[in-house]
Automatic annotation (TrEMBL):
<keyword id="KW-0677">Repeat</keyword>
<feature type="signal peptide">
    <location>
        <begin position="1"/>
        <end position="16"/>
    </location>
</feature>
<feature type="repeat" description="Solcar">
    <location>
        <begin position="99"/>
        <end position="181"/>
    </location>
</feature>
<keyword id="KW-1133">Transmembrane helix</keyword>
<dbReference type="Pfam" id="PF00153">
    <property type="entry name" value="Mito_carr"/>
</dbReference>
<keyword id="KW-0812">Transmembrane</keyword>
<protein>
    <submittedName>
        <fullName>S-adenosyl-L-methionine transmembrane transporter</fullName>
    </submittedName>
</protein>
<keyword id="KW-0813">Transport</keyword>
<dbReference type="InterPro" id="IPR023395">
    <property type="entry name" value="MCP_dom_sf"/>
</dbReference>
<keyword id="KW-0472">Membrane</keyword>
<comment type="similarity">
    <text>Belongs to the mitochondrial carrier (TC 2.A.29) family.</text>
</comment>
<keyword id="KW-0732">Signal</keyword>
<dbReference type="InterPro" id="IPR018108">
    <property type="entry name" value="MCP_transmembrane"/>
</dbReference>
<feature type="repeat" description="Solcar">
    <location>
        <begin position="195"/>
        <end position="281"/>
    </location>
</feature>
Length: 294
């Protein structure tokens, strides 16, 4: 996987300059590999920015970055990013399989729900590592499994799905619309350039991020409330929202917006860009293999 991602990164600058043969398409396994490698690479690069976003959204009483130390910005970086491979792989493979036969909004909604199987555990572990609840990945997995059971890995799943579903739908639908418009007057089989993939990716993510920011704050609070020493735990989503409004005011729902935007924009730009490059890379390899086998 890492070798593929490195090859994709090196090939990204050449994306869009040549057109893969029209007959060459990716099967579902190859779409999963391309999308997974893209998300893995993007998550790995943007992990520190995501950690800053999480710390900015935690409840009063939780430790700050100065108390936790700079190392917390990369705590669990490699291990939790492995989950990202399956998140991205499921998103792109499900969307790619359904898009030819379903509207973009349906395909992207299914992609979001399907990827939640891996995405929610990734969020739970990542955010608890960043906030210092657990010292390392192995301890986090072992303690969650022992004290909370399998459902502990899906803590806060309702607000997470409520955030991810509209966010992924907005991102994929926006990107798909921009892509279709850009390719409308080009020869059949053309690809977006690297610049277009990155530009459309960041634009789609910024719109989706702004629309889902309040839900993201609620989700982070529920997943990391154990880090707030002495605070009464939230009883659920409704209690979380009412307590935040009462104690901190409506402005709290925009907390961490700047670090989140600085994270989500580049993350999705890289994800769409690397997925496009990976797709072209695999197509060219398949085309070469078919040509040499004749």
């Amino acid at each position: 996987m890492c070798k593929l991602w490195l090859a994709v990164a090196l090939a990204a600058s050449a994306q869009g300059k040549t057109v893969a043969p029209r007959a060459v398409t990716l099967n579902n396994r190859e779409k999963l590999l391309a999308g997974g490698s893209a998300r893995f690479g993007a998550q790995l690069v943007m992990y520190p920015a995501d950690a800053l976003r999480t710390l900015a959204q935690t409840r009063k009483g939780a430790k700050t970055l100065s108390e936790l130390g700079a190392r917390t910005l990369v705590s669990g970086c490699a291990t939790t990013s492995m989950f990202a491979f399956f998140v991205g792989g499921l998103q792109f493979s499900i969307f790619g399989a359904l898009r030819p036969v379903a509207p973009a909004i349906v395909a992207s909604a299914c992609a979001s729900l399907g990827s939640s199987v891996a995405g929610i555990p990734q969020e739970v572990i990542k955010q608890r590592l960043v906030t210092g609840i657990y010292p390392n990945f192995a301890t986090a997995v072992g303690r969650i499994a022992r004290t909370e059971g399998p459902l502990g890995f899906y803590s806060g799943w309702r607000p997470t799905v409520a955030r991810n579903l509209p966010f992924v739908v907005i991102c994929f639908c926006s990107f798909d619309a921009l892509k279709q418009r850009a390719l409308r007057d080009r020869p059949e089989g053309s690809s977006l350039t690297s610049a277009e993939n990155y530009l459309y990716g960041v634009s789609s993510a910024l719109v989706g991020g702004l629309c889902t920011q309040p839900i993201d704050v609620i989700k982070t609070r529920l997943m990391t409330q154990a880090a707030a020493v002495g605070a009464v735990p939230y009883a659920g989503v409704v209690d979380c929202v009412s307590t935040m409004l009462r104690e901190e005011g409506p402005g709290v729902f925009l907390r961490g917006l700047a670090p989140r935007m600085s994270y989500m924009g580049p993350l999705w730009a890289l994800q769409f860009g690397l997925n496009g490059a990976a797709t072209d890379f695999i197509k060219k390899r398949k085309a070469l293999k078919e040509a040499t086998s004749k």
